[in-house]
Amino acid sequence: MDRIATAGLHRSILASNQDNLAHIALYQRQLATGKKIEQISDDPSAGRQLLRYRNDSAAATTYLANVDRTTTLLNASESAIDQMSATLDQVRAAAVQGANGATDAAGRAALSRSVDGMLGRLIDLANTKHDGRYLFAGAAASTRPFARSADGSHVEYQGDLDSLTVRIGPDTSVTLDHDGHALFQGENDVFAAVISLRDALAQGDAAAVADRLAAVDAAHGRINRAQGDLGGATQRLQMTRDQLEQSRTFLDTLASAAEDVDMTDAISKLQLAQIALEAGMQSGAKVAQRSLIDFLQ
Amino acid sequence: MSDSLLIALSALSTQQRAMEVTTHNIANAATPGYTRQRTELTAMPADQGARPGPAGRGVLLQTIRRVADQVVNDRVRQAQAESGRLEVLKQQLSAVEQALGEPGEGGLNATLGRLFTQFDELSSDPGSGGVRSAAVSQLQGVTATVSEVGRRLEALNADVRSAFATTVDQVNELTAQLAGLNGQIRTQMVTGGQPNDLIDQRDTLLGKLSRLLQVDARINAVDGTVQVSAGGFPLVGTDSALAVHVSGADDPDTPMQLLSPNNFAVAVNGGELAGIDDLQRNLIPGLIATVDALATTVAKQVNARHATSTSATGRVGEWTSAVTFAPISTSLNLDDPALAKTTASVTGIPAPFAPAFTDASGNSVSQSMELNLLDNATGIARKHLIRYDPGAGPTPASRSVEDLVAAINTGRGGGFTAEPSGAIFGVTARLVSVSDGFQLQLKADPGLSIDFSPALDLKPTATAWTGPALTVAGADTTLPPLYPDNRLAIRVNGNAVEAVVRDPQTGAETVLGSAAIPPSGVSVLTPIPGITVSIPAGIYRDGDRFAVALDAAGAVVSSGSILANTHVEPSTWPAGDAGMTIKGRYTGGHPFDPAQPWSMQVVTPGFIGARPTTPSPGNPPVVQFTFLSGPPGAPIRQTVQKTLDASLPAGSPVEIADGVFAVFSAGVLSKAGSSAEFIVDGRGDSAGLLPALGINSLFTGSTAKDFAVEGNIAADPRRLANGRTRSAGDGSTLVELAGLRDARIGAGGLTLGEGWQTTATAIGIRRQTAERQGDIQASLQKSVESQRDSFSGVNIDDEVGTLIQQQQAYSAAARVVTFARENIQTLLDLVR
Predict the structure, then answer these.
(1) Residue percentage of chain B with pLDDT more than 70
(2) Does residue A195 sit in the same domain as residue A279?
(3) Could you say which residues from 318 to 377 on chain B have a Cβ atom under 8 Å away from some Cβ of chain A?
(4) Of B352 and A242, more confident
(5) Angstroms from B408 CA to nearest CA on chain A
(6) Nearest-by-CA chain B residue for A163
């Protein structure tokens, strides 16, 4: 049996009380913050996971925001194109009426004027702005994309041919072909079809008007295809959105599991540490008081 | 009889001394470093031969012994050294972790995420001024956090370094005190003294010293002195101390080193100083380097993409390099390491941003960058290439800053050449003098702005819509005709057209006449009476020539033609001609030689677009595009023919190759054989020269501490580049920048985020390990200390027990004196 030095005994009582107190402080802090990882060293392996989950979750949040913005843009485009389709219905009605033998020259001239009005409306719709940007100008979002040529013979495209690319995942991005030229011009030019109908009506040539009907239908078909494409894109984005939302929720759950305190566990540990501290203090106080001197008469 | 009295008296004085020692022990029960002392009593032997019998002469206090075990004491000292080291590591690693701020919002993990999120957000609406301003201020927040982390680490490094110096001072103070004690102890020991308390003091000092620095202590048993040495170098001798000192204190980039008195490096193996040394030598500089590398990787990757991009809203007519060159650097290649930081004000090109004029195996290779001059009024840009060619000789051609300036201003400098050949018109490069050095400045003429985008420009770069031909007509009116034998030739010489005659024997040529190429109209040259050479205005290619054949009568029978190139500047295309615009950006996989222009040739002339007066436009024009693709060594000639009929009306894009389009405006393509040339190169700045110079950079700084958003962009967010097509809505560059989030551009093929997570985790593990080792060490130290305490420490009960014993002995001796006194009295009474 070793000798015990009096000062050593006091030191060891103090040290074990310190240890117990440090445990209490730790559990108390965990309970107060609700986090068991305040610094990576608290649990490096969980800390590392936490860093990764948080990073991935932040990325998912960004991608979600991009999906939302893109969806809004697509919805605005869809609504403009829906209205263009409705306007083309009116154009077709005018064409049918103009091709009818019963319509006289004055009637055709009036129809020509009203088709010109519809052309203006189609151009306005193709120049739709959303949130300060032209929807159908390609990447030249601040350039008004469509204008009548000086002689009124055709509609000129002034936007550009670039598409808008939006990242919606680490390796995924959607490309929005928002260039008005690709949507409305080129083959089956929507505006050219309406203009040639207007000119045929103005010339009062019923047979020519009947000829133009096919072009108007082709243009209409083209607008309907664009409608379908946009709808499909919106649907795909919605699916992406759901996936992103799911994975973000999953990542947040994982992050929470890595960093959040299990309250029951922490509370019971805290109580245990408190008991240990009290026991240590009481026994220490008793032991430290006694010395042989107390028993000397 | 008096012997008994003397014996009792010896007992009294001895027990008195013994009680003093015990009381001294009790008094020092709580004194740190105190070693209990024991009186060693011995019986005083009888005088030899005086009287027979065993009776001695009482008790003698032989010695007051320190109850110390040198082996245990040494073990305690070693434990103290290791505790000191771990304690410092624990403390400082906790500070390091706090400086990094992980996993909080202020940590680099979250900050990197925010950086890429900004690019992502801006990419979906790059044209909006509001979003742009917000993004730039967010980016400033990101750079501020990175530089804050950098600064905190530098501050920690400074703290640790100053702790190193302070600790060394403390070591010297302790060794000086030890040397002083050595002297005192020796003096007392040689005179037979018992300097127990001085020895305690010495051991306490040795303990303190060991906590700071692990030392070797040898105690001389004879004179009680201690010899202390560290890493084999003596620190304390018999009565003198030698001071250690430190090197590298003045340069924060060099680790500090402990030096012996005679300037040898001393290995620091234990004690607080070992912990500090580990931190200041490896851990903190390593961490600073990692954070710096993170910041410079971000800056380099982002700047490389940003530099070759443009902002539609923030045009710039004058660029100044962010780096400053010392005057000496004029003779250095731009990728010469000697250009790197020399003084505080001269930054040079920091090593991480050095441009690459060599391939992976260090051989110089051809590189190029693009420089476009944009007419702000028309939006039309001229594209120029600045090429670097290593040259044919064994020594690669030079590539100094001055070479670059010369190439821009004169067309050639060192290995740099400008394409199309000649000075780049409309821009002046110069070296502007600033404090201690100079910066490169590129300044455009008024009305022009400069960018470096590899995108195809809005108009062909060198249009060669061929104009009217230079022609020869008439008949030699001299008789006989002077040159009926094909010796007459016409050639372009600089700005003049010359008629020359060639000597068939020697081949020497004599100029017969010369006329300057007119600025407009047609000028006529008559080299021989009767023969006229008509020279229409235009630009001719220097050196073009053809032979003129005259018949026996002197009449021109055949002559070639030199085509004037009348439409070099797209803006001067005659009204009515169809204009051609080249758009897009090559996205295909084939490498192109940027020096090799693509060309468009009109195969069949015709009208493009509807002509209101003519319902039927006649034959549609046919154009043919020619370009070389495939590997640089074995290019393949590609031709693409397009008929510009109703399916490709005016304004519609005609695809030439992946991503490259030509767009024709309505008008006429009038001449068969007219052609245009343009340069296609998707690589942009292939050597990384722009980020190296700090031109059109988004981020500045070569360390984490000075990482910042470039000043001009911070002041004017419109200058933040968004794409490569000069279109406000083109977010392609921003998409690329956002994509860096997932790009494996960090060390070891990791993404930047993953790399940082690894570092942050490694620091966490380091601290956790230090904490655990510290705990183990603490209990180890406790155990050796209690071992020492149980041997050398004071137990009050023990001492009180001893005291009672001694008191009893003293009382007994006192009674003996009384008895002896009574005996003597009795004896004296007898005498009376």
Answers:
(1) 85
(2) no
(3) none
(4) A242
(5) 31
(6) B730
pLDDT digits (tens, 9 = 90+) for B732-742: 889 889 989 98
Q: Is the pLDDT of residue B560 over 90?
A: no
For B489-496, what is the mean pLDDT? 83
Same domain for A123 and A205, yes or no, is yes
- Contact, B349 vs B355, CB < 8 A? yes
Mutation choice for B interface testing from A12, A33, A40 by most B CBs within 10 A: A40
**Domain residues of chain B, as ranges?**
2-67+796-831, 73-287+767-780, 317-453+687-695, 467-565, 570-609+618-678
Which of A41, A142, A291 is facing B767, going by the closest CB pair? A41
Whether the predicted pLDDT of B562 surpasses 80: no
Q: Do the chains contact at A162 and B652, CB–CB below 8 Å?
A: no
Q: What is the mean pLDDT of residues B508-530?
A: 84
Residue A16: inside a domain: no
Nearest to A47 among B651, B730, B761 (CB): B761
Same domain, A179 and A267: no
CATH, residue A216? 1.20.1330.10
pLDDT band for position B159 (cuts 50, 70, 90)? very high
Q: Is B800's Cβ below 8 Å from some Cβ in A?
A: yes
Average pLDDT estimate for B457-470? 51
In a domain, A26, yes or no: no
Q: Does B732 touch chain A (CB under 8 A)?
A: yes
Task: Flag if A58 and B794 touch (Cβ within 8 Å).
Answer: no
Say whether pLDDT at B324 is over 70: yes
Please state, in angstroms and as integers, the Cα–Cα distance from residue A199 to each residue in A112, A202, A204, B403, following that order: 7, 5, 9, 63
Q: Please give the average per-residue pLDDT across B118-140, as a whole number.
A: 86
* Strand residue runs (E) in B212-344: 216-219, 226-230, 233-236, 245-247, 257-259, 318-320
User: Does A14 fall in a domain?
Assistant: no
Distance to chain B for A168, nearest Cα, Å? 9
Chain-chain contact of B112 with A4 (C-beta, under 8 angstroms): no
Q: Which residue is closest to B32 within chain A, CA to CA? A: A7
Contacts of A259 in chain B (CB under 8 A): 103
Comparing CB atoms, the residue among B125, B727, B754 nearest residue A162 is B727
The answer to whether residues B266 and B230 touch, using CB atoms and an 8 Å cutoff, is yes
* CA-based nearest residue in chain B for residue A160: B727
- Does the distance separating the beta carbons of A7 and B789 come in below 8 Å? yes
DSSP state of B517: P
Is the domain of A188 the same as that of A76?
yes
Mean pLDDT of chain B: 83
Residue A147 lies in a domain: yes
Chain B residue numbers with beta carbons less than 8 Å from the beta carbon of A140 are 727-729
- What pLDDT is attached to residue B438? 87
Residues A149, A125 within the same domain: yes
Contacts from A121-126 at CB under 8 Å and sequence distance 24+? Answer: A121/A87, A122/A84, A122/A87, A122/A88, A122/A190, A122/A191, A122/A194, A123/A147, A123/A148, A123/A155, A123/A191, A125/A80, A125/A81, A125/A83, A125/A84, A125/A87, A126/A80, A126/A84, A126/A180, A126/A184
Q: What is the mean pLDDT of residues A110-126?
A: 92
Angle at A286 between CA A280 and CA A291, to 5 degrees: 135
Task: Let me know whether A294 and A195 are in one domain.
Answer: no
- Mean pLDDT of the A273-287 span: 89
Test B112 with A55 for CB contact under 8 angstroms: yes
Could you tell me if A245 and A170 lie in one domain? yes
**B795 interfacial to chain A (CB closer than 8 Å):** yes
Say what the pLDDT of residue B820 is: 83
Return the pLDDT at B213: 94
Average pLDDT over residues B655-659: 78
How many domains are there within chain A? 2
Residues A251 and A267 in one domain: no
Structural domain containing residue A237: 50-255
Distance CA B821, CA B824 (A): 5
